[in-house]
Amino acid sequence: MNLTIAALLAQDGITNGAIYALLALALVMVFAVTRVIWVPAGEFVSYGTLTLAALQLGKAPGTVGLLVGMALIAGAMEAWSCFAQGHVRGLPRRLIVWTVVPLAIAELVHWLAPLQPPFVVQIALTLAAVTALGPLLYRIVYQPLVDASVLVLLIVSVAVHFALTGLGLWFFGAEGSRTPPFSGESFRIGEMVLSAQSLLVVLTSVLLILGLYLFFGRTLYGKALRATAVNRVGARLVGISPSLAGSLAFTLATLLCAFSGILIGPITTIYYDSGFLVSLKGFVGAIIGGLSSYPLAAAGSLLVGLLESFSSFWASAFKEVIVFTLIIPVLLWRSLSAHHHEDEDE
Predict the structure, then answer these.
(1) How far apart are CA 236 and CA 130, in angstroms?
(2) What pTM was estimated for this model as a whole?
């Protein structure tokens, strides 16, 4: 290996690591706020890529039908909840949030898809359609189980993963798709060639992470999410709604996953089940951060990307094994250094 090859591998590793960092942040956010280990995160990555690919072909993506179905189910659940609790006056506002807005997004995507709008508009439609699925999924599946144990939530997440994978096969078929690159230009710095596509992916990821930093540090809703992540009971006592925090966390996490799918689409061919493997690598980065630290999760994801890239050069047949083996020493170290309350109680 010479310096040129090492630079190319490092470029690929940083590019992939930036995408894994977004997924790791999404996983950490969801777990910190709702205690849900978000196994189906990868499906929203695949949905992001395949929805954009369908719009490129002038077809209404299958996510539109899923969005309509989930909006109707969420609206029915809200109506039942309002009548059961005697809060009928709040029903119109809830129906607007959970049914009217998602249906409007679905109708907009369905109407504009055959017109093949500009690429930027297609990206916006993709983000809107896929992101809207996140809070609906929380309302239908996870909100009724808000007091369940982490194990129960994990089992439910695995079930949701299989359901969304099957729906992805039904919506998009078994054929893979690849979206056009944002830019085909490249820059030469000495012996090293940098592609504009890689730079754009890294820059976009950094801007999203900075945007999340400002959101959590400067906005009222961001501080509410931080408070819920630190102490759920305390946040509830000061008036922060757990359901609102969960819906907001799922919305932001789904947005990050959908954006990751858009960023990864030009780099590799995505199939209906490709997102699971991608999200697992983001999960390794999240585990390095202890499912609680955003900076450590982002740094761990960059490490995963670099390790994957250099492993593909030295031992391409074992690169996945090497990447996922990284989680073993991390888990051992965290297990040995963790403070076990059960021992204290005994």
Answers:
(1) 29
(2) 0.88
